[in-house]
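Exercise (ungraded).
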Amino acid sequence: MHDAAAPSRNFIQEIIDHDLETNRWGGRVHTRFPPEPNGYLHIGHAKSICLNYGLASQFKGLFNLRFDDTNPEKEEEEYVKSIIYDVGWLGAKWDDRLVFASDYFEKMYEFAVELIKKGKAYVCDLTPEQMSQYRGTATRPGRPSPNRDRGVDENLDLLARMRAGEFPDGSRTLRAKIDLASPNFNLRDPVMYRILHAEHHHARDKWCIYPMYDWAHGFEDSIEGITHSICTLEFENHRPLYDWFINVVNEGRTADGSGPWGKKIHHPQQIEFARLELTHTVMSKRKLLELVKGNHVKGWDDPRMPTISGLRRRGYTPESIRAFCADIGVAKFNSVIEIVRLENAIRDELNKTAPRRMAVLRPLKVVITNYPEGQTDQLDAVNNPEDASMGSRKVPFSRELYIERDDFREEPPKGYHRLAPGREIRFRWAFFIKCESFVKDPATGEVTELHCTYDPATRGGDAPDGRKVKATIHWVSAAHAIDAEVRLYDHLFSVPRPEDVADGVDYKTNLNANSLEVLPAAKLEPGLAGSSAGTRIQFERHGYFSVDPDSSAQRLVFNRTVSLRDTWAKVEKANAPK
Ligand code: ATP
Ligand code: MG
């Protein structure tokens, strides 16, 4: 039927299959992504975007990008802009359906008036503290507010005066009259409107009463004609309220609009799925904001952050994030996903697409004593040995070169096959090189320079006499190299579940103090000069890197997106209890 090629269908696709078979929505599928603009989007939001947009496109339906902007205090234009950019970057398309819940405030207000007239809502004078005392407990029903039986006219008058700005913040609310004994606390006369004299980033100063999420959300979906209102599991026990509000508005309404209340409004179906949780990070916007404000990271787009903007800066592609979301799937029970699955998604992609280059991150000078001064050889280097179509390039070789400090040992331990005094190895794409001697800083004992010889007969990397070497290392020509800053990242938190802390312990104590390592003096092969921000490269033996927007023509900055292999999983395996 739909997308017959799909191997298996998740439970939401099955619901939609059934709705289409029974013609529940007249053949329509219409989803939305409804972020509150109170922070930047994170990888959990990406799961929701991929799900909602994915369903709409798979079933040839529609997708709305809607700002659920009902809380002026925490919302900002900066967040609106970043969200629009991120959703588009991920590949979702909303055509002309970029909408703001605050544009429906007038309509919601009309519905509120209607609820009062139907005897289903009242203005309550309890303070927030009193209200929570009145609310009862799991075993004790709530007490009625002294204002619960206020007359319709008085309620209408007070609501109008709340709207007109006559009362201070927090002095009154509009509440739904439902069931103070309900085991579901959401139904114990929930607040629909509160007074808040605050400027709104979209509605400006038009309102000083603001709708609560539960009151607003169903009408946002209804007004837009959403068919499947998909949200995360914690809203499961809000669904009775979602349905109650729409049902009460529909009481006395008719399909053709005859009668005093007019036409029935559309009633979407709320469906809940498990939110994404990832190890070694946090996902709540409140905590992410705290990390930004507390300078624990360099901003929302710090490459260590689980935000979409952070992942983008780190070097992730939209394709890799979508592949990750497809890989983890959609279920009805919560689980924690290992962060290595996210890393594997970008690794798999870059292994195929990223050209390979040589970069020395912690340089050690090498002088080839038998190579003529002032001479340069242009050697052929293959761009991606796994993909011949990516071709090859020339890299310059000369008398003075750099190698990694770690590729030389004065006293090599057992099993160390790279350079050591008297030992011959291969320089990638170049020659066999033999270490003849080395220079030490007498003050520090640090090795500062190697003196080596090369064998011109081994050009290209093989010896005509058939002799073998046990290691191949990368290098760059000192005179030709370009300078770069390279930033290496580790997980933001050093434990898998940073929020699992004892009472009174702050989750921030689990921040990884070594999550960023800056290498200021890396040396790169010259072809990388002028690489633009976002360029993705494999540095041989080091991993996949992406050019940071901090780069300038004078100074390149590279972020390591991910290492070549899944080293973390190996470390964890080694540390796991036997
Ligand atoms: P927070 O509670 O941290 O503020 P939120 O869920 O309230 O986050 P919203 O802006 O309200 O953030 O979320 C927009 C949409 O994204 C909602 O439909 C929500 O269900 C979904 N969403 C948020 N976090 C996740 C997650 N971790 N996994 C999947 N979907 C998520
Ligand atoms: Mg929310």
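Further reading is listed at the end of the chapter. For now, observe: The mean pLDDT is 95. The radius of gyration is 31 Å.
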